[in-house]
Amino acid sequence: xxHNRIYQINTKPISEDDYICDSSFLDHPFVWSxxxxxxxxxxxxxxxxxxxxxxxxxxxxxxDDESDSFMIxxxxxxxxxxxxxxxxxxxxxxxxxxxxxxFASGSRFAESMRLMSNAFNEERGCYVSSSEGExxxxxxxxxxxxxGVRYFIGGTLDYHS
Length: 161
Known about the structure:
With 161 residues, the protein is an alpha+beta fold. 42% of the residues lie in helices and 22% in strands. The longest helix is centred in the middle third of the chain and has 21 residues, at 76-96.
């Protein structure tokens, strides 16, 4: 079990009064399917530093510290997913050599399928909450984010998975 973050992200600045809080998700399906608890007892500044570190280390985004915002860079999506893609390809190659017996028993094949799925969309990693309260994985957010659009960070929450 580990702790991870939910980041509130929008294309417009978010006032502190409108930051997400744990009570926003009391009846959300996420609570029952992914986590056993959400808490707003976390340090927003540290959480933003962690997100900045991840997205700049992978060269996916450029941050503006003044406004707690970032923009996905040209080729940023490819840069962000490069390592995950390598993991996906490695596991795909393993499944290509799976025999009927291995497929039928499921053991090695099932593990490769799980690893490929995680490489494509890490469901136990960070999440993004939209202005409508929809939760998507950070991977999904990056895939559908628009290059060159400024994204503002609002509140952050901790979740336990």
